[in-house]
Design a protein that fits this description.
5-stranded mixed β-sheet; alpha/beta; single chain
């Protein structure tokens, strides 16, 4: 009965809102594979110690630099990769945490047989599985909320997270990241008829939605405390999954959404009544997140990304993102990584 009322209330949005709710409900269909926790290697591949292999120094970390720093690429196996390869039968798969509600990123398409997962992040996950296990389909996807990305890695529920996850100093103290694979920045999404013009004073007395555990909320909270965001801006609405913010906006429960511009553009493509307001006001980079001590896996993913940037990245961008972000992908290409020296 409740679902019927929600569908009825969203009918005026041309069915887009209903699709959003449907995607949110699709969490019930997340694939469940018994958790296999990889060992905790503390040496680099080949048995060499990696005492200096931490991606950043906690006492001198700046997001702008940390986002580019990572371990040097390597094609060698190590304890973490060995554990993945040791899985047998139907369990011999790479376990990847993804989104299933982000249009053109990690999206369970209801119009495909079996509601297949598709998008830019999904393409990358298949490429990683191909390299490690020799089969692009040897991957088990687990849908996880934004707020559980780090805990899913730490608890061993997934081998890695490929889910529009921004590299930050705070997150680097909890997990390890690959080299960046995409560049974006925070932007405001609001109805076309809204007086909001961007991340500025027009957000005064407005209700803004963000995803719990997101860099968007962290930025808004810091700016509000610093006085650079109007004190009257209400940032109390947070949701487990970013798409839920679009639903809240459609229902009139919030006035604007703040999220990565890459995600906001895809949401605007789903709903023609909303648009991006103003320019991006941060610079952020997505990375593949893994266990903090899974150095062999981090190095392997970095080697994969070297090849993917020259063969695969552009094709995936053209397929999924060019319609919303533009045919020129230069603004979205990640910077050259800075490989850390290890001792």
């Amino acid at each position: 009965m409740y679902a019927s009322r929600v569908r009825a209330s969203l009918r005026g949005w041309g069915g887009v809102g209903a699709m959003a709710v449907l995607c949110a409900l699709a969490l019930a269909f997340a694939l469940l594979l018994p958790c296999t926790q990889a060992p905790h290697p503390r040496t680099a591949v080949g048995g060499q110690r990696v005492a200096g292999a931490s991606q950043v120094r906690a006492d001198a970390c700046e997001d702008s630099e940390a986002q580019k720093q990572t371990l040097s690429p390597s094609g060698a196996d190590g304890p973490t990769i060995d554990a993945i390869k040791a899985r047998t039968g139907a369990r011999r798969k790479l376990i990847v945490g993804v989104d299933q509600n982000s249009y053109h990123w990690g999206y369970r398409n209801p119009n495909t047989e079996g509601a297949e997962l598709e998008g830019f992040d999904i393409d990358l996950a298949h490429r990683i599985a191909q390299d490690i296990l020799g089969d692009p389909d040897a991957v088990q996807f687990k849908a996880i909320p934004t707020s559980q990305r780090i805990s899913a890695i730490q608890d061993g529920r997934v081998d890695m997270v490929v889910r529009t996850m921004t590299i930050t100093c705070d997150r680097l103290s909890q997990v390890a990241f690959s080299a960046p694979y995409f560049k974006t920045g925070q932007q405001v999404l609001a109805p076309k008829s809204s007086p909001v013009t961007g991340y500025n004073g027009t957000l005064a007395h407005k209700r803004v939605c963000t995803a719990a555990g997101s860099t968007a909320y962290t930025k808004l909270d810091a700016d509000k405390k610093a006085g650079t965001l109007p004190a009257s801006t209400d940032i109390s609405t947070t949701v487990p999954n970013q798409l839920d913010c679009l639903v809240r906006l459609q229902l009139g429960e919030v006035d604007a959404v703040v999220t990565d511009g890459a995600l906001a553009a895809s949401q605007a493509a789903q709903d023609p009544t909303v648009e991006l307001k103003g320019e991006a006001f941060t610079t952020e980079y997505y990375g593949v997140a893994m266990k903090k001590d899974a150095t062999d896996l981090v190095r392997r993913v970095n080697r994969i990304l070297v090849g993917y940037r020259s063969d695969g990245w552009q094709a995936s961008y053209d397929k999924w993102l060019s319609a919303t972000l533009g045919k020129d992908a230069s603004a979205s290409k990640p910077p050259a990584p800075q490989y850390l020296r290890t001792s």
